[in-house]
Amino acid sequence: MAELRNYMEEVVRRALDRFLKDNPGICDCVKCRMDMAALALNELPPRYVVTDRGQVFAKVSQLECQFEADVLMAIMRAVEKVVDNPRH
Ligand SMILES: [Zn+2]
Questions:
Q1: Domain ranges within the chain, ordered by starting residue
Q2: Against a cut of 0.90, is the pTM above it?
Q3: Residue 4: Cβ-neighbour burial (10 angstroms; 0-12, 13-18, 19+)
């Protein structure tokens, strides 16, 4: 079954996971994580594609290379905002 997906969402999720793993001092609860992902995604261009289930990951690494610097910058800004003003 075909699905509409935003690959950028997957790229941000993975980059955010790595970032939080590398920075253990930052709260990585579900609330903060989702706030960070939302803030970062609002800064990044969406990349919508129609895909069959399960094919998402093949193209994610391609995008990761293309947008690595932008994604990391957006994540760092998002993390800063959430750390300054956590919702808990
Ligand atoms: Zn938290």
A1: 2-84
A2: no
A3: exposed
> What separation in Å is there between the alpha carbon of 71 and the centre of ligand 1?
21
* Whether the Cβ atoms of residue 17 and residue 30 lie closer than 8 Å to each other: no
Gap between the Cα atoms of 76 and 23, Å rounded: 11
Q: Note the pLDDT tens digit of each residue in 38-65.
A: 999 999 999 888 877 666 566 677 778 8
Q: Ligand 1: distance of its center to the CA of 32 in Å?
A: 4
What is the distance in A from the centroid of ligand 1 to the CA of 37? Answer: 13
Task: Give the containing element (helix H, strand E) for 3.
Answer: strand 2-6
Tens-place pLDDT, residues 1-15 = 788 889 899 999 999
